[in-house]
Amino acid sequence: MRVLVVEAEELLADMIAAGLRRAAIAVDIVHDGRAAPTALRLGAYDVLVLDRDLPGLPGDEICRQMAEQGLPTRVLMLTSPRTGRAHVEDPGPGADDHLTKPFVHEELLARVLALGRRARPALPQIIERAGVTVDTARRLAVRDGRPLALSRTEFGVLEVLLRAQGAVVSGDELIEEVWEEHTSYRINAVRVALGKLRAKLGDPPVIETVPDAGYRLGDGAGAGAGGAARTSDGAEAGAEPEAGVGPGVA
């Protein structure tokens, strides 16, 4: 899931983003309402956490523009105590839910997850291929019954490849689905994550590199292209700090 937080208070925005990232959600932040429409058009976000009282362009106007453009992003509007009651009576165009400040993080996370489920078609909770299984709701991954301790990024890459069910996924598609907008060393980050993921999955290799195309999850019958790519990607591995995301994912 990808979330855009548009919040004028930098400390609050950082706190919201940190909490969502702990739940394995990719988050980008904007502090000025005038930058929000461009970010929304380019980012393909599932959920927008939107401060109603923004400088530059108010939240209600951002919602109005989103409705005119037909953007599918779901909106959680953050309101101040003085505007909270008015917002209940008049939620404004395009706002799917609202939350009055101050709020507890668990409530915000629950609202974001609920909106995220509405933003995309229902997907299976458990996905399996070549003996690799992920439980997306519980954030668990196993191979042939062996639990895998994956970082948030590694889990995201594995989920995207599993959902493709053998189809090729490009590096750009992986970046769009898993990484946040301001991640540096973009393509190298993909190689690093794939090298670490291959090492944790073990043998026989199941992630194959398709030259000039991307990556796919094979059937695990042999090393094939994946074996050669594993060495190449692993050699480029550098430190990519990641926090654990729930039981079974370190």
What tags apply to this protein structure?
250 residues, alpha/beta, five-stranded parallel β-sheet, four-stranded antiparallel β-sheet, 9 helices, 11 strands, 42% helix, elongated, disordered C terminus
Could you provide a short overview of the structure?
The chain has 250 residues and is an alpha/beta fold. The protein has helices at 10-22, 36-43, 59-69, 81-89, 105-119, 152-164, 171-178, 186-201, 224-235, and strands at residues 2-6, 26-30, 47-51, 74-79, 97-100, 126-129, 132-135, 140-143, 146-147, 207-210, 214-217. Strands 2-1-3-4-5 form a 5-stranded parallel β-sheet, with helices on both faces. A 4-stranded antiparallel β-sheet has the order 6-7-8-9, covered by helices on one side.
The class by helix and strand makeup works out as: alpha/beta
What is the spatial order of strands in the main beta sheet?
2-1-3-4-5
Overall morphology: elongated
Number of strands: 11
Major sheet characteristics: 5 strands, parallel
**What pattern of helices and strands is seen along the backbone?**
EHEHEHEHEHEEEEHHHEEH
**Kindly, what is the distance between the CA atoms of the first and last residues, rounded to a whole number of angstroms?**
19 Å
Fraction in beta strands: 15-25%
Helical fraction equals 40-55%
Helix run count: 9
